[in-house]
From TrEMBL:
Residues 345-562 form the ABC transporter domain. PROSITE patterns: ABC_TM1F (PS50929), ABC_TRANSPORTER_1 (PS00211), ABC_TRANSPORTER_2 (PS50893). Gene3D superfamilies: ABC transporter type 1, transmembrane domain, P-loop containing nucleotide triphosphate hydrolases. This is ABC transporter ATP-binding protein. The chain crosses the membrane at residues 28-49, 74-91, 148-170, 176-198, 259-285, 291-310. GO terms for molecular function: ABC-type transporter activity; ATP binding; ATP hydrolysis activity. It is a multi-pass membrane protein. GO terms for cellular component: plasma membrane.
Length: 563
């Protein structure tokens, strides 16, 4: 790994963050002021206690109004001690709340950008990505970036500030030599914790990969529960899963054992610092080189440093894991993006034109392919499974580009880049019907630029024979579907998908097996409705009745044989 690589990744993710999170630096400065102010008060409390102890041993006992606001007054010191303690704890709680807000803001911003980036990836890159893995990588990476910032700016820097403030007070209270010895030991322990953490083996990559594997396997089984159930394969799948669970347990236990050893080394380093310096302080106290107040001050500082040092050691230990998570996160932003153009669409009686095109249809590579799809016609595409019908749809919708030749949509050359303006004119119904979370209204209007009244939506639900959904699920148009949509039948989901496309009022409707889950009577009824409202249709269908609506049937079996 190049030394500059971590910084390049950090800078890259920072740029991504700022595109959504508008004021990160402002919030960082606010949090920094809170933490440093809290640290300053934490350092001040033992010093005030030292002053109180030393003054109490000097025989100061009488109250005097003249001395009320002098630092030599015990009453003032007692009040300052209480106020400093209250202020330090108050600022610590405020810092915790503020840091939680800050980390949540970072996490949510990066998760948003992660999904946005996924949508911008090329179709081929999207198909390579496993759902469970990208979900884990994006969330873990977003959290890791927040932890990297928090550890470096709000744990390491405040600790350094705290050590140097302690050194300065010790130099003023005792002498510079003692302060330098204190600083030396503190920096030595701090350096040891960093060395142990940064020189340790990379135990995070193995752990994360193991977690991703079992997570993906789990999601795969949940997604395919129907096939597993009907084939009575539960025992077989659980047996396989049990083996993977054992492998996961072994790898995770090994990783945690290595982490525990490293953390014990770091705890031991801090304990040695505590032990040596406490003995040294006792020795100085016995030799009367430090006062009782000095002894309390030094003891408080030593004990007070142990917790921050342990916190730093644990945080630094996690930096390597955070960096690995961040690297995985950033990797998705380096993948090939889809390239779109923006060109005004002109009216034409020809929707699509393939001219001497080379393209892949299924496993077949087709050369010198020529085809025109005209306006105001219904095309039904037929052919055996795997022949490339869905691949053909990918070229029409911009998911893939032809390898050679020319492809036009009306006046726009989409050979290399699809045009975003085309999406305003076409609607697509995919092979797998989709119902989204949200309300039924949101599912129907979805991405439509048109406004529909309640009465109009109810009318369309009646036309698509979907009104029983409202009564049997006790739904209105604006009720959240929550988990209820999971009980919708395949036919109901398919009709919702078709209606969603129809409500966009497309000039051209592209459909891939749109009525596969419907009975013939319902399918014929819906096709009649579609033909009344959309003049140009390109449809893949194996159903014999679909061809009665076709102006032209395109047989891919014959087309490929002729090539």
């Amino acid at each position: 790994m190049k030394p500059s690589e971590p910084w390049a990744i950090y800078a890259g993710v920072w740029k991504i963050l700022k595109k959504y999170y508008q004021h990160p630096i402002r919030h960082m400065l606010g949090l920094g002021v809170l933490i440093l102010s809290s640290t300053l008060l934490v350092v001040s409390v033992p010093y005030i206690m030292k002053q109180i102890v030393d003054l109490s041993q000097s025989g100061v006992s009488q109250f005097s109004w003249d001395q009320l606001w002098h630092l030599e007054n015990l009453y003032l010191l007692a009040a300052c001690f209480a106020l400093a303690w209250f202020g330090s704890n108050l600022l610590q709680h405020l810092s915790q709340r503020y840091s939680a807000f800050f980390l949540i803001s970072i996490e949510s911003a990066l998760v948003y950008k992660g999904l946005e980036n996924f949508f911008n990836l090329s179709f081929l890159e999207q198909r390579k990505i496993e759902t469970g893995i990208i979900n884990t990588d994006i969330w873990r990476g977003a959290e890791a970036f927040g932890q990297l910032i928090f550890t470096s700016l709000f744990i390491l820097i405040p600790l350094v500030f705290e050590v140097f403030m302690m050194m300065w007070i010790l130099a003023q209270s005792i002498n510079i030599s003692f302060a330098l010895i204190f600083l030396f030991f503190a920096l030595l322990v701090f350096a040891m914790t960093l060395i142990v953490a940064l020189k340790s083996k990379d135990i995070y990559s193995t752990f994360y990969e193991a977690h991703n594997r079992i997570n993906q396997f789990f999601i795969e089984k949940v997604q395919n529960h129907y096939d597993i159930q009907i084939n009575a394969a539960q025992h077989y799948e659980l047996k396989n899963f049990a083996q993977r669970v054992k492998e996961y347990q072994t790898e995770k236990s090994k990783s945690h054992s290595q982490l525990m050893i490293l953390m014990l080394i770091q705890v031991l380093s801090v304990a040695i610092f505590l032990f040596i310096f406490m003995l040294f302080t006792v020795y100085l106290f016995e030799k009367k080189q430090v006062s009782t107040g000095d002894f309390i001050l030094i003891s408080s500082y030593i004990v007070g440093l142990t917790l921050p040092m342990l916190r730093v050691s644990h945080s630094v230990m996690g930096l390597k894991g955070d960096y690995i998570s961040l690297k995985k996160f950033y990797h998705y932003f380096q993948l090939e993006k889809v390239q779109h153009q923006s060109t005004e669409v002109e009216s034409s009686d020809m929707f699509y034109r393939f001219q001497h095109a080379n393209l892949h249809l299924g496993k077949h590579e087709i050369t010198d392919f020529n085809l025109n799809l005209e306006a105001d016609r219904c095309y039904v595409i037929i052919g055996q499974t795997g022949i490339g019908k869905s691949s053909f749809m990918h070229y029409l919708t911009g998911l893939q580009q032809i390898q050679a030749g020319q492809l036009y949509y009306k006046n726009i050359n989409i050979t290399q880049q699809f045009s975003t303006d085309i999406y305003h004119e076409i609607a697509v119904v995919g092979q797998v019907p989709t119902v989204y979370s949200g309300t039924l209204r949101q599912n129907l209007v979805h991405n439509s630029p048109y406004h529909y009244t309640d009465a109009e939506l109810i009318y369309w639900l009646e036309v698509f024979q979907l009104t029983p959904l409202l009564s049997k699920n006790n739904l209105s148009l604006d009720d959240e579907l929550q988990d209820r949509y999971k009980s919708f039948s395949g036919g109901e989901k398919q009709r919702i998908s078709i209606l969603r496309a129809l409500l966009k009022k497309p000039q051209c409707l592209i459909m891939d097996e749109p009525t596969a889950a419907l009975d013939e009577q319902t399918a014929i009824h819906l096709m009649s409705v579609i033909r009344q409202h959309v003049t140009t249709i390109v449809m893949i269908s194996h159903a014999a009745y679909a061809q009665q609506f076709a102006d032209q049937v395109i047989n891919f079996d014959e087309l490929i044989q002729s090539k």
